[in-house]
Amino acid sequence: MTEYEYRLPQERRIATEFPGPKSAALAQRRAKVVGAGVASTLPLYVADADGGVIVDVDGNSLIDLGAGIAVTTVGASNPAVVSAVQNQVAHFTHTCFMIAPYEGYIEVAEKLAELTPGEHEKRSVLFNSGAEAVENAVKIARHATGRDAVIVFDHAYHGRTNLTMALTAKSMPYKHGFGPFAPEVYRAPMSYPFREGLNADGSAITGAQAAARAISVIEKQVGADSVAAVLIEPIQGEGGFIVPAEGFLPALAEWAKSNGVVFIADEVQSGFTRTGAWFASEHDGIVPDLVTTAKGIAGGMPLAAVTGRADLIDAVHPGGLGGTYGGNPVSCAAALASIEQMETLDLNSRARRIEETVTARLTALSKEVDIIGEVRGRGAMLAVELVVSGGREPNPDATKAIAARALKDGVVVLTCGTYGNVIRLLPPLVISDALLDEALTVLEDSIRTVAQEN
Ligand code: PLZ
């Protein structure tokens, strides 16, 4: 990585018990006014964040391996983003692109056309959140095809709004008690190599076989000519950082193409250099018809997009897509600065370096302890799936215990997975090598300790 100037000391510093007195006081105030349905992973309240650290109100400095769920790829206070935002707010915070348009929105759309997979003519529409982008991709696909059905997959996560809850697989906590859900959503089996059975002859199920299985469900239960879209995360995020078997995504994309079905890649979590490529779709050589993006796109400011084939997106009548804040000028300025930072700091290479370091260390550890089922992922979207000693049974208790121990020692790691048994690593890509190494040592110690207790 070329030079990145850190504002805060890049260090792990434990100043108090967790939570410290100021965080404890904030927790008390929070309980009286903030809805209980919003849960926080950390018991600490943030005062500052930069590079690879989060500093709390009591002066603790934690190493951040979560990046606010894959958002602060360029850092939580990247100087280029800060200055672009400051400059933009000093001019105008909002005019509403649907009322009085501005250049920043167009520039972001130009960048999206350049960076997303494929050389075809593209259009983009900007929104505020990942869920909103996914909803709009479905709107576009339905409008363009005149069909209703949307195919999603086991373990999928696409958001918390009514339609995206229907698209999301996991009931607790995302859907439980929140129905009824939007209709015409059908779920197909995913390719999940670690949890897949083997063929009768003991060979692993290939991506092509897993795709054939999914396609058969779609054709038998829905019918190809009713399907508007196949919607999939090229690497599943909340569902467990599941990397499908090679060939799965290309076979699905091919089937979609030959059946007039819109193939939507949800790259909200995997996009924008996270996996060592601009988009995770590139690893599988697929060119989606539509791509949804959010999170990493704007360095922490809320922005999301649907980008894709001009003929599909332009099929929608003028006025059919929009929203008051979609493509807010401050978020657009932040996005342009973030993307420029990804380019100048070459964060794709950085993500691949992080993959090498982390994978080597955790794979070595997996030979030493027997609760690591699999180490997987791409770039800086990496995961450890935890199992009951020696087998494949999910081990959510060990997972929670490991994350809690790491936190106690000043390292923030997030968990995920349908079975709650996956530790995921999503560091800001500007984290220093030294800090990443230190965080890995803490994580390894936590895993070793928990493995001994199991
Ligand atoms: N699609 C692939 O990962 C958001 C959500 C965490 P929003 N993932 C983190 C939580 O518990 O709410 C996500 C995603 C993929 C869509 C979304 C939704 O993005 O910006 O949270 O709406």
Describe the fold and architecture.
The chain is 37% helix and 16% strand. The chain has two domains: 21-64 and 346-453, Alpha-Beta Complex (Aspartate Aminotransferase, domain 1); 81-344, Aspartate Aminotransferase, domain 2, CATH 3.40.640.10. Strands 4-10-9-8-7-5-6 form a seven-stranded mixed beta sheet, sandwiched between helices. Strands 1-2-3-13 form a four-stranded mixed beta sheet. The chain has 13 helices and 15 strands. The mean pLDDT is 98. The chain is globular and about 60 Å long. It has 454 residues and is an alpha/beta fold. A hairpin with a 2-residue loop joins strand 1 and strand 2 (53-56). It binds ligand PLZ.
Give a quick summary of the entry.
Helix content is 37%, strand content 16%. The chain is globular, with a radius of gyration of 22 Å. It contains 13 helices and 15 strands.
The number of E-state strands comes to 15
Low-confidence stretches: none
The domain tally reads 2
What binds here, in terms of ligands, is: ligand PLZ
**What is the CATH homologous superfamily assignment of the largest domain?**
Type I PLP-dependent aspartate aminotransferase-like (Major domain)
Structural class: alpha/beta
Identify the notable features of this structure and list them briefly:
Aspartate Aminotransferase, domain 1; four-stranded mixed sheet; seven-stranded mixed sheet; Aspartate Aminotransferase, domain 2; 2 domains; 15 strands; 37% helix; binds ligand PLZ; 454 residues; alpha/beta
